[in-house]
């Protein structure tokens, strides 16, 4: 289970998002609104607070958290897995891949996405309603991109005119 390094905030500027650690913002409400009560960094999104509070002086129920980080990943297809007791959303490379923003017992969700490789932005949002609180994110590369024969072309088809997000067909 990860340990959060946190600070009470008072108008400080958050550090830039890097490949080194998850930057987190803790809110004393369930909708990530207003100024975060706590900010800090952690090495992983892997918390099981049970019935306890994430930090001294912070509520044990009715809170939300946002974690952001860039992950240095090779090109390929990845499976992201998140387990959450209450609501969770996961964005990878600016695509919402898991959207389970509801009160629920601990449940595991999976999504797969093709990634181009490099520094990939990832964002996890979580809210705790009442009783047990936990959230954990994992990922694994499940396949490499197909190799192209010399002189061959690779085509990517998108479902929008801006060529944004993941292609719908390669």
Can you tell me about this structure?
- The protein has no helices and 11 strands.
- By secondary structure, the chain is mostly beta strands.
- A hairpin with a 2-residue loop joins β7 (88-92) and β8.
- The chain is elongated, with a radius of gyration of 18 Å.
Spatial sequence of strands, sheet with the most strands:
1-3-2-5-10-7-8
Morphology call: elongated
Order of helices and strands: EEEEEEEEEEE
Provide the gyration radius in Å: 18 Å
Please report which band the strand proportion falls in: under 5%, 5-15%, 15-25%, 25-35%, 35-45% or over 45%.
over 45%
Query: How many DSSP H or I helices?
Result: 0
What is the arithmetic mean of pLDDT?
Answer: 87
- The end-to-end distance, rounded to whole angstroms, is 38 Å
What does the largest sheet look like? 7 strands, antiparallel
Q: Structural class per helix/strand content?
A: mainly beta
Distinctive features:
single chain, mainly beta, 11 strands
Give the SSE map.
Layout: E1 5-8, E2 22-27, E3 38-42, E4 46-50, E5 63-73, E6 76-85, E7 88-92, E8 95-100, E9 107-115, E10 118-128, E11 133-143
Antiparallel strand pairs: 1-3, 2-3, 2-5, 4-11, 5-10, 6-9, 6-11, 7-8, 7-10
Short description:
It is built from no helices and eleven strands.
